[in-house]
Request: fold
Amino acid sequence: MGLEHRIKAALRFALAVSIVEYPYAWIAVEFEQIITSSPTVMENFQLWGAIIMTTIGVFSLWSVRKPSTITVKLQQSGFRRGLILSLLNPQAIPFWIALTAYLKYQGWIDISTGWRLHSYILGTSVGAMALLTLLALMAHKVASSFRDNRLIRMIPGIVLLFLGVIGFARYLFF
Reply:
């Protein structure tokens, strides 16, 4: 969206992602011990992640070729797009589980009180918003190089499809 000079839509996308980041980070932190100690749960995260990445990748590639009315609405609404993509991407949970476990192990964070826990989780949302805002604002600088390039629009779908295939391979063979 930033590449398309749709800064307001990109900022709404960033806001939606940030809103979803909070409960996902909270789930990860609250259930870190349970989740990291259960191999069955972790294996299912891998499978769901693979299914979702592959589905989004196929949908993304398909929408580049034949945009439907739903695709057009999602493309126009940064907030709806960010909300749907964030809700369908549970990869944030294992990321925050791993990062939280590492930071706790190193003694760099203490989330033993409610205030500290929610400060940490709020920081994840604010950080996501800041990063995505920076990307949206900087993307317009290179927009002229990428505008109307069908291959460039296909890259996110190809990457998601590739990640989905890797997820399936890891789930099935490792």
Notes: The chain has nine helices and no strands. Residues 31 and 99 are 13 Å apart (CA to CA). The mean pLDDT is 77. Residues 39-65 form the longest helix (27 residues).
